[in-house]
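CORE FACILITY INTAKE
Project code: CF-77B
Contact: R.S. (postdoc)
Sample description: multi-component assembly, two entities in total
Requested service: structural model of the whole complex
Turnaround: standard
Below are the sequence entries exactly as provided by the requester. Do not edit them.
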Amino acid sequence: MSASETAGTAGTSGTAGTAGTGTDVSRADVSRAEYCVLACAEAWRGNGEVLASPMGLIPSFGARLAKRTFSPDLLMTDGEALLVGLDGETEGWLPYRRHLTMVTGGRRHVMMGASQIDRFGNQNISCIGDWARPSRQLLGVRGAPVNTLNNPVSYWIPRHSTRVFVERVDMVSGVGYDRAAAAGVTRFHRLPRVVSDLGVFDFAGPDHSMRLASLHPGVTVEQVREATGFALAVPGEVPYTREPTAEELRLIREVIDPKGLRDREVRG
Amino acid sequence: MTDKTMTPDEVVGQLRSGMTLGIGGWGARRKPMALVRALLRSEITDLTVVSYGGPDVGVLAAAGRIRRLVAPFVTLDSIPLEPHFRAARESGAFALTEYDEAMFMWGLHAAANRLPFLPVRAGLGSDVMRINPELRTVTSPYADGEELVAVPALRMDAALVHLNRADRLGNAQYLGPDPYFDDLFCEAADAAYVSCEQLVETAELSKAGPPQSLLVSRHSVTGVVETPNGAHFTSCAPDYGRDEAFQKLYAATPWPEFSARFLSGGGEHAYQSAVRAWHEEQR
């Protein structure tokens, strides 16, 4: 991951610690959801010819933005069994059995959701409470165990809170850095980033712990700390998530999500 | 050659309480729901169900027929959480063998190939290993020496799958984009029952699609059933999509009420009539 991905480029005026009041027009105009789309898109920068597997609305918009701009070689599915281009044209066949080979072959970067995630990136989508008799049954582990051991896995959390960012997850579905190291399965294990409605996070903290990589404009470090249920690594100077270019904004608003569904998933 | 055509109730007549039963499809996609509904009309219970779970698991759980479930998930796809599966898990109604999606697939491959297990790079580091303490690992005998999970064969007593077309001999064809794992389910089971949208002459199969659409071959099939709209309310592309309105009703209606209205009228024909009547009321 290059520094420019998270540090922002032209239009980013300073850091959250020192300049929380930037008021240039573009910043005031860009919605939180649009920063989230952009931050998700950045997950696939430089990935080349791999399958982008976004789970959820904003990651889907992000993947399409990446493919339309800086990562044109990404592969995408129609949500069923076809590989399709941006115009929906079929270019390949990807039924579940081949999809799973794409995972184990490593030619895929998935952005999954998480009902819980801890500071080393262990993720839970299976159930809340004691697995033997959960207080809240969720989806099941799905493909999280195989994903995390074989292809890059990023996460998207639409509502950053202490209910999601927890000290310990109830059922490890996606494997985090500490457990991957303990189990000796680090060979293809990589969690590039976590994007939430408050900011972008990576695992460049001590011992691969979660670190605040950038704040979405309008969010403070204190807000993130309060919404996080574990000690987050926070560098001295935290950049803002970069500003979208005029063309990126146009693509998001006019081409990728003209109905504005993004603002229903993330408000503000 | 053997004519393997049967009715849904004749299929269920071959099943017994306590069996391990595989169910094809994926989530709320191409599930053999007509056969599952026939199962609900029987007294068969105490089942170990092996499934990429959807409403097949939901209705069997709601009816209390499951002793153990083997699955990586249970979902209605457009409705992420299956309500009856959730309720059953939260009340501790049955045991669960929770595998990862890839582990599950390689378990099917192992069973279809009469192998005791297959090695998979999945599960290690996750709580799948904690909740399935019987799982063992193997170490690669080659220079890499990697430790892998030895997923045991998912062998089944019987499998139920639903495809688009079939002939009377048991050759079955999918016409949608995804075969799911229905061929493996049939090969991994001691007996396999295929329901289809339409029973056709063998010669018709090659006219309907290319050779690779002939997913299931008769050597792995015990019985064939024609059940039009038999995957309802799950999808069966290209014959029909998921009945989203009905699925919403299913998910929102208490089971006794749903069951009384749609599943107590006798056979599959009564179910399909009740569904049509409900749709007409919605107009």
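Facility notes:
- Residues 23-265 of chain A form a domain with the Glutaconate Coenzyme A-transferase fold (CATH 3.40.1080.10).
- Chain A has one domain: 23-265.
Invoice: internal transfer
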